[in-house]
C-alpha cells in the first residue's frame, strides 16, 4: 500500500474517532487500539510497549486530574466523562501513530517525501526527529548499563532515576559527539548536493490504494452528513 | 591532483592555541593509494577533515593556514563536494537515518546524486559483492556488527566514485582478511577511477608497503611495532603467567543467535576461563565477538546453555564506545569513583592518563577516552574483564600502555577476555589462549615484527566448514559463467543428465557413489514434492531397498499448487505430505520435526525461482534440519532463467533487493489468494497474484549457489548439469514446463538450465 494511503487512512480514523459520539467513538478507538497493537511491525523494532505505557500513563494522569474529588475523596462522575473524552482523543492519535510507525518503513517514507518534492532540509529534520527518540532510549539503556557495571545501582525505578542524574551528562555529551559524526557522514554521502534526488523504492498507486482511500473517504463524508461533532 | 602546501591546523581554547600540525606539504597524482599516520592527537582526523573541506569551517575554534587543492581547484570550505567522500572511524555514527536496511543504506550516495534506479542496482550489486555485503544486504542496520557496518560505509563511499576518498582510521573495525581485500579494492578503485584514496591509520596497524606513499604527521613517536613487541616481552618476563587453579568463568553448550532467520553465532560453545588467564577472542567481522561479551554480562540471553561465574566473582566490560561511561567532571574523579586512590593512580599511570587528571573526559582525543574507559572498567577490580577492541584508536604509545596495564591486571589475577583484530595486540599476547569464532577459517594477523607461535590451547567453536572440499569454487571457470556463456558447454556435455520425477533417485544413487547411508532410523524429506512423482519414486526405491519403514515426508508451497487428487491416489501409508508454505524457513523446522520426529537423513529439493532471501532461508533451514552426514540433493535452476522468463513475458520482475519475510513470490500466495491453476489454465506462477518475481541481486552465477550451500555447512559431492529428456516433456498446452521448453527447443535445449547438486552435511 502507498504510504500516502496509510496516512490518509490514519487521518480518517482519527477524524472518525473524534467526530462520533459515545459509545461509537469508544468502539472505534477500541478497535483501533486492538488492531494497531496486534498488527505486525514491518520494522526491526516494535514500539507497542512504549506506546502502551505512554497511553496508560496519560489515562492515569487524566484520571487523577479529573476523575477524583480530592476534598471529598469520591469519584467525580462528570470528570470521568472528561477523562473518557480526552482519552479517546489521545488514544485515537496514539493508535493511528502506532499503526503508521509499525506499517511504514523508512525507505517508503523517504520515497514519499521525495515524490512530494519536499526540500531536503525538511526531509532531514523529519528523519532526524524519527531517529532521535529510539536512539536516545537506546543510549539511555547503554549508558545506564555502563554505569551499572561501574557499581551505580539501578535495580528499581527510584534508583534508576537517581542513576539517571549523573548519566544525563554522559547521554547528552555522547549524543552530541554522535551528531557531529553523523552530520559529517550525511554531508559526505551527498545530502547537500544540488539537483534532483532519486529513490530506489518506486512508489506506485495501485487499485488497492483507490479502494482504501475511497472507503476511508466515504466513511468521513458519511460522518459529516450524519451530523458528526465537527459538522 | 591533490596538492597540499604548507598546511597548518590549530585549535583555540581558553587555555590558548594548540597546534595539531604545521608545515604539512605533499602532492599526489591520480591513482595513488596514500597512507596517513601519526600518534594520537597529531591530527590524522584533522588533516582528513581539512582535505574534505569540513575544517576549519565546521569548528569556529579551528584555525587553518596553507592551501589545499583537488584537481587544480582549491577546496571550498563548508561546501559539499561531489568529488570528495569521507568515512570516519566510528561506524555506528554514520547511518543516515533515512534507511533501515543494509542495501538501501548502501544506495544513499547514489540517490543523493539522482542516479536512476536501474544504474543504482547494477553498481550496488557489484559493490555489495566485492565488499561481502550480498549475504547481509537484506538485514536491518541495527543488527550489524561494527565491522560489517564499517564495510557498508566504505562500500557506500566507493559507490559514489569520488575523486578523493578519505578513510579515517577505518582499519580498526575490519578483520585482517577483509583488510587485505580492502587494499586490493582500493588500489583497483584508485586506478580505475583515477582517484586518490587516503587511509589514515595508527602506527603499527598496517605495513607501509601497502601504500604508494605514506604521510607521517609531525610528532610521530619513534615507537615502532618491533619496539612494542620488545616492550611487551620485557614486561612479560617480570610477571607470573601461571593462571590460578579453578575456572572463574564456565560456559557450557552455549547456543545463541539473534533471530531464527539468522545463523547460529554460537553452536555448543564450551569454554573455561581460569583465574588470571588471558584469552584472545578472534574471528572475522560479524562472528560474535562482541556478542560473547554481551552474553557473559547477561545483556542478551543465550538460546541454550549456561554461563556460570565463580561465586563471589564479578565481571566487567570495556565497551567499544568509550563515551558511555563518563559521569564526572575530570579524569581523576572518573578513575577514583568507587575505588581507592592508589589503584586509580596505578591504572592512570599504566595507561598514560596521569598527565590528563584534571581534564574533562570529553575534552580528550578519542584514543585517550578509550584508554580511560578501559581504566574505569578495570577500576572495580573484576575477576573477569571483557575488553572489546581495547586497542581501537590507539597509537604505539597507547598500545604499549595498554599492554602494560593488561599484564598488570593478569598479575592481579584478573582474567582477561580480549576481542581484537589488532595484530599489535595478537602478536604481543601470543601466550594467551585463543578463542576463534565464526564459520570461516580465520587467519590470525601477524605483524612483520613477528610473534611467537601460540603455545596455549586453541578453542575453536565452529569447525572449518570448507571441510575436505578440494577445489575452490572460484576456480571453476564454467561455474562462474553467466548462463548464456555456459549453456553451450552444457549442451554437448556428456555429463548432462536427465532429471524428472523418478530420475532424481537414479541420479542420487549415481552421484553419491554408495556414500549415502540410509538405514532403519533414517528419515527422508522431499521439499517441493509437486505432483508426487518424486515422492513415489523415492518410496519405491526405499521399499525395494528393504527400508519400507523409513518415513518419507513431502512438502510443497501453496496449497493451490498441490494436486490433492493425485496425492490422495498415492495412498501409501508411509508417505506423509503437507500442503504448506514450507519454503518459509519458519515452517520448515516444525514440519520436519513434527512429521519426521527429528532431523532428516536425506533431503531432496528443487528450487526454480530466485527470491534470494527465500533461498537463503531455505538452505539455512535445510542445514538445520538435516542430520550430521545427511545428504542433500538439490536441483537449482540458473538465476538467469528468471530473467529469461521475464523477457518472454511469463513473469514480471520486481527489482526489490531488500525483501521482507513475506515478500517472496511464494509469500504472495499466502492468504488463499492463488486461484486454482486448473481454473486459470496455467501454472499458478502465471496467476494474477503470483507472477511477480523479486529478482535477487546476489546470485548471478551458479558458483554463487555453490558458495551458499558450502556456507550452510555442506560438502559438495557432485555438481552436474541436467536436462529434461524429450519424452518427458508434456504435450499439454497448459503445462508451464512444456510452454517454456518449447521456447528453448529452438536452441536445442529442452529444459531450464539447471544443475543437480549432491551435498553432504559436515
Please explain how this structure is put together.
The complex is a heterodimer of chains A (231) and B (762). With 231 residues, chain A is mainly alpha-helical. Helix content of chain A is 73%, strand content 2%. Chain A has two domains: 3-104 and 201-225, no CATH class; 116-188, no CATH class. A two-stranded antiparallel ribbon of chain A has the order 1-2. The mean pLDDT of chain A is 84. Chain B is built from 22 helices and 28 strands. In chain B, the strands form six sheets. In chain B, strands 19-27-28-24-23-20-21-22 form an eight-stranded mixed sheet, with helices on both faces. Chain B has a six-stranded parallel sheet with strand order 14-15-16-12-17-18, with helices on both faces. Chain B has four domains: 2-226, 3-Layer(aba) Sandwich (Rossmann fold), CATH 3.40.50; 247-314 and 382-396 and 416-463, Rossmann fold, CATH 3.40.50; 320-381, no CATH class; 484-761, Vaccinia Virus protein VP39 (Rossmann fold), CATH 3.40.50.150. With 762 residues, chain B is α/β, with parallel strands linked by helices. In chain B, helix 20 (677-680) links the parallel strand 25 (652-654) and strand 26. Helix content of chain B is 31%, strand content 22%. At the A-B interface, helix 5, helix 6 and helix 7 of A face strand 6, helix 2, helix 3, helix 4 and helix 10 of B.
Structural class of chain B: alpha/beta
Number of domains of chain B: 4
The dominant shape of chain B is: flat
Count of separate DSSP helical elements of chain B: 22
How large is the radius of gyration of chain A? 22 Å
- The fraction of residues in strands of chain A falls at under 5%
Q: Compute the number of strand runs of chain A.
A: 2
Summarize the amount of helix of chain A as a percent range.
over 70%
First-to-last CA distance of chain B: 53 Å
- For this structure, the CATH topology of the largest domain in chain B is Rossmann fold
Domains counted in the coordinates of chain A: how many? 2
Q: Largest sheet of chain A, order of strands side by side? A: 1-2
What are the segments of chain B in which pLDDT stays under 50 over at least 5 consecutive residues?
A: 220-243, 441-501, 558-573, 657-699, 726-751
CATH class of the largest domain in chain B: Alpha Beta
Order of helices and strands of chain A: HHHEEHHHHH
Mean pLDDT of chain B: 69
Largest sheet composition of chain B = 8 strands, mixed
